[in-house]
Design goal:
Blueprint (H helix, E strand, L loop, with lengths): L10 H11 L4 E3 L19 H6 L3 H9 L4 H4 L6 H10 L8 H13 L11 H12 L6 H7 L2 E5 L2 E2 L5 H8 L6 E2 L2 E2 L11 H9 L9 H17 L4 E6 L9 H12 L5 H22 L2 E6 L1 E2 L4 H7 L7 E2 L4 H4 L1 H7 L7 E5 L4 H10 L5 E3 L9 H15 L17 H21 L5 H19 L4 H11 L2
Parallel strand pairs: 1-2, 2-4, 3-5, 6-7, 7-10, 10-11
Antiparallel strand pairs: 8-9
Helix pairs in contact: 1-19, 1-20, 12-13, 13-16, 17-18, 18-19, 19-20
Amino acid sequence: MNPDRFLGPHKEIARELFQGIESLPLVCPHGHVEPSLLASEEARFPNPVELFLRPDHYILRMLYSQGVAMEFLLDTDKEPLELWKVFAQKFHLFWGTPSGIWLEYQWRRTFGMEDSLGPHNAEEYYHGLAEKLSSPEFSPRALFKRFNIEVLATTDRATDNLEHHQAIQKDDWSGRVIPPFRPDKLLSFQAPNWNDELGALQRLVSADVFIYQGFLDGLRERRQYFRSLGCVATDHGCLTPFTDRLSTAKASRLFDRALRRNLELAEAQSLQGHLLTELAGMSCEDGLTMQLHCGAYRDHHRALFEKFGPDKGADFPVRVNYTRGLEALLNTHGAHPNFKFIVFTLDESNYARELAPLAGHYPCMRIGPPWWFHDSLNGMMRFFDQVMETAGVYNTAGFNDDTRAFCSIPARHDLWRRASCRWLSGLVADDILAIEQAHRLADELAVGRARDAYNLTAQSAAVAASAGST
C-alpha cells in the first residue's frame, strides 16, 4: 500500500506529522463490536462471509442497490463460498468508497493478502482468509493486542446483563473493554415492546420502575452497575435532537399515560425530551460522558424491514436543528463543570451553522467526529473545513470508529489520522500553524481529544479497574 496515501498535496509536511502519530495506541470509545468476541481466549471469528460481508450494512446496501437480492445475501443455508464469489464479482462497486478502502486495508495489512479481490481469485482469497481466521494468531484477542487498542467500548442496552463484560473483567487478560450505557429502548414509549423492556428493567433493579420517580431511580441503579464494569459514557440515538424541561407532576402524568398505552406522539416526544435532560443531570452527578447521535431516518424501506429487520442499509440522513432542539438541556446543564456532552450529526449542513458555534460556547459540549455516511476522506475534510475555525480542535471529541466490524478498526483510525495530517499540513503550508503546533494538534486529534472527552486518562483507567474489582 502506498505509504503516502490520502496525505494530499503537501505530502512532505503531512508525512512528517503522520509519522509522529502512526504508532500511537487506538482509543476506541464508541463502537458496536460484540463483547462476546473478546470474552474468552478461545473465541474465533466466523468464516469470511460472516465476518466481512453479511453483518455490514454498508456492503449490503451497495450490493442491493446493484440488483443483488437481499434474500440471497442473507440466506444462511447457502454455502458461504457461493456468496463470496458473487461478492468478488461485484467488488469493483466498492472501488473509491470508504468500504473499499477499509476492506483493502484489512486484507492487505492485517491478513497479508497480496492482491485485490476479484472473480479470478475469489476461491483462493476465501480459503486463505478462512485458514487464518481459524488460527490463534488471528483470534480477536490476538488482534486486539496487535492493533494496539488502548480501550474498546461496545454498545450495550440498559437492560443487558453484561455477562461477557463480566467474563472479561474476571479473566486475567489485559485488554480493556468497557460497556457504554444505552437506554434508548426504555425511552421509546410508543414502541410495541416498551412495556416488555420496562419489565426487563424491573427485574434488574430494586426501585419500582412502574412509577415515574422509581423509573428514574432504576436508571440510576443501572448506570452505577455499568460504571462498576468500567463504563465511562452513555449513548442516545434519536431522529431529532429535541429536549424539554417538564415539571415533575407533568412528567409523572405522561409516564402514567405511557404505561396505559394512550400517550400521543407529541406527548411521547415531550417526555423523551424531558428525560434526555434528566439523563444529562445524571451525568452531572456520576460523571458519565453523554453521547447524542441524531439525524438518522431508520428503516425507510418498510417492506425490507418487515421481512429482514433493521440494519440492512435502508437508513438515511435527514435535516435536524440542534440550536432549538438542545436549548432545554443546554440551558439546564450546559455550564455544569462535571458534564461532558458529545453531539454527532448526519446533517452536515449544521456543522458551521449550529454545532461549531454551540460547542464554541457551552463548556460541556464537544463535537463528535464524522459519522456513518460521512466517515470518509471527503467527509473528514468537510468536517475540518466547517468545524475547526469556529469550534477549534479542543472543542471536538477526536475520533471514534463507530464500527461493528472489529477488523476494520485500524483501517478507520489510519484514514482519520492521515486525513488529520492532510488538513494540518495545509495550515502549515499556508503559515497558519507552525510545524510544532501542528504536531501537537495531530496528537490531540489521534488520541488526546478522545481521552479527554471520555475521561480516559491513565488515572481514570486505574479508578475504573478498581471499581470493577469491588
